[in-house]
Amino acid sequence: MAEFQPLVFSGVQPTGNLHLGNYLGAIRKFVALQAEHDCIYCVVDLHAITAQLVHDDMRSQTRSIAAAFIASGIDPKEHIVFNQSAVPQHAELAWIFNCVARIGWMERMTQFKDKAGGKNAEQVSLGLLAYPSLMAADILVYRATHVPVGDDQKQHLELARDIAQKFNIDFMEHIRREGSGVDIMVGDEPVHAYFPMVEPLIGGPAPRVMSLRDGTKKMSKSDASDLSRINLLDDADTVSKKVRKAKTDPDALPSETDGLKGRPEAENLVGIYAALSDKTKEDVLREFGGQQFSVFKPALVELAVHVLSPISEEMRRLLDDTTHLDAILRDGGERARARAEKTMDQVRDIVGFLR
Ligand code: AQP
């Protein structure tokens, strides 16, 4: 049975300062996957206008995320780094997916419910509701098979699978006729598919990094309090201040992970330490179990600065030369467009548009 060619795709929105959650949940995985896979990494600027239409600094935010990718170790020559709006095929496929997906699927998305928040639901943009359909198109316009993301994106990836599956079933005869499908197994069922069933790559000790001010809330670019997150561009003093001020409880760290239950802030800081040091939470507690936060926090600051400062230095260097950075994005955009057009050329035939 044939297989889809393995391909990694993921994206980050240019909606604010990149933080430790984006780094540990996503960008660090992007870097690691390059060794074994063909990878496409995108600054998803079309997504950035779904929650807020007018941005004063979208271009600089876009460059900043591209700089973070490269400074973290993504090789834009070997792989592809570009911004989404440079490849109009994403939006074209998203329109087709808007007609494949059902409104009920979109309305069930937790992120939509959080962002549209109850009585505001009628007032938010149609784009915010349709966001997961564009996300499915971002991935599937390359027929990508693996998507590294933070835990918060799990539901959107399940929806991308639902969209791919419905497209494959609805157009099964057309796909066969056009000869562009692949025979795959979905569970125990053999299916002649055009789009692969994407696999989310979520994991590690910090798949969802939580706010430093509230261990029950996700660390987020849009949190009003800058103290809630460590930004990739924060200097050592700022990182130190934020970790010192991070909410904790008065108890010492436990020696076993069971002892972190019901202590979300402690669990979050231990998870961050583990992820930054490539260890497990068990390893961290073996080292720090029984210690107070007054001992653990300075160790965490030292580690965070050690890992993040080379990245922020390199980001600043790249951001000083926007001509070079723009050329990287332009080159990535051209290569991405050629690949996306190959898919859309077949999709237009599968759907049956007059050519
Ligand atoms: N707190 C987090 N922990 C782990 N992973 C996270 N990601 C985001 N926050 C965390 C992952 O980062 C990638 C890029 O995210 P995004 O910018 O495209 O969208 P987001 O999830 O909406 O990020 P934010 O920071 O929460 O932005 P706002 O505040 O604008 O909504 C994704 O893989 C995401 O999982």
Structure description:
With 355 residues, this protein is mainly α. It has two domains: 8-205 and 322-351, HUPs (Rossmann fold, 3-Layer(aba) Sandwich), CATH 3.40.50; 226-318, Tyrosyl-Transfer RNA Synthetase, CATH 1.10.240.10. Helices cover 53% and strands 8% of the residues. The protein contains 14 helices and seven strands. The strands form three sheets. It has a three-stranded parallel sheet with strand order 1-2-3. It has a two-stranded parallel sheet with strand order 4-7. Helix 2 (45-51) runs antiparallel to helix 7, helix 3 crosses helix 13 and helix 10 (236-245) packs antiparallel against helix 13. The longest helix has 30 residues, at 322-351. The chain is globular and about 70 Å long. The mean pLDDT is 95. Bound molecules: adenosine-5'-tetraphosphate. Adenosine-5'-tetraphosphate (AQP) is lined by residues 12-13, 15-16, 21-22, 25-26, 149-150, 152-153, 208-209, 218-222.
Provide a short characterization of the protein structure:
By secondary structure, the protein is mainly α.
What's the average pLDDT? Answer: 95
**CATH architecture tag of the largest domain:** 3-Layer(aba) Sandwich
Write out the strand line-up for the largest beta sheet, numbering strands in chain order: 1-2-3
End-to-end CA span: 31 Å
Shape: globular
- Top CATH class of the largest domain: Alpha Beta
Count of beta strands: 7
Assembly status: single chain
Structural class category: mainly alpha
Helix content: 40-55%
Largest sheet: 3 strands, parallel
